[in-house]
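Journal club prep — side note

Before the paper discussion, L.F. wants everyone to see what a predicted structure for a comparable chain looks like in token form. Sequence:
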Amino acid sequence: MPIPEDVTGEEIDKDVRQELQSLPKTLADDVAKNLVMVARLIDEDPEGAYGYSRVALRLASRVAAVREAAGFAAYANQKYSEALAEFRAARRMTGGVDLWPVMADCERGLGRPEKALDMAGAPEVHKLDKAGQVEMRLVAAGARRDMEQLDAAIVTLQSPELASNSVQPWTARLRYAYADALLAAGRDGEAREWFAKAVEADKDGSTDASDRLAEMDGVEFVDALIEVEDPDEQRDEQRDEQQDVRESDGDSLPAEDAEPRDLTTAVDEDVVVVEESDTPVDVADDADVEEAKDSEGSEGGVGREADKD
């Protein structure tokens, strides 16, 4: 896969660069560039990131950082079985527990929430740092919701980290998950409060808490770039369109310009002439005609005055 010219491979984390030192320099540079592309695309173009991860995996499958990157790329594309296999391989190589929460979430993705809950209670969790423990709590709450245990999910999220007023990298996501669980349980008032708290902590827009809060408040966003037309202009445009339609039908042409109606109809090159009817027509006398005209004029005048009013 093509690598943009601005990618040098030096952009990767120094720890990953150190892992790649076991490879020949040229190969290490190629792997590094592909890993940079994985990190660059994984949020906006998961499929593209997955493609670069497969290249890196083909070049250096015995490097733990490569297996980890391949796992996250597969995870971003909801390839949970493949992601879990890559994470397990990376963990065997490093012996670390950092990937334990995302491995548990892969079990959820595979439809095994019970397995995720077992992992949440495993000894490995105690070896995680604070961020990892919060992540594990989020996964466990998600597993409870998968099993339709809403109250248990809410209790799982209730923790010192949730109650703390300090803002950490995980704070917005933790508050958001708690608000969402409350809303699912029908506790709308509390949910709104925690969505608002999530907005306060979400400085980089990692959640859609602001949208959820606006939705609960019945707020609709209108694109400022969309110009609202003047009602009078809309009526003028409609009138012009109607005029165009009439002109296309020939109805609005002056009497002297309009073509006379053809009283013949062509059918298979034979002309059928419409003849005058022999049926006698009753003709009203002059008095009746004048009376009808007076009556029409009077009613029409009332109608126009009403329109003016």
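L.F.'s comment for the group: The radius of gyration is 38 Å. Keep this in mind when we get to the figures.
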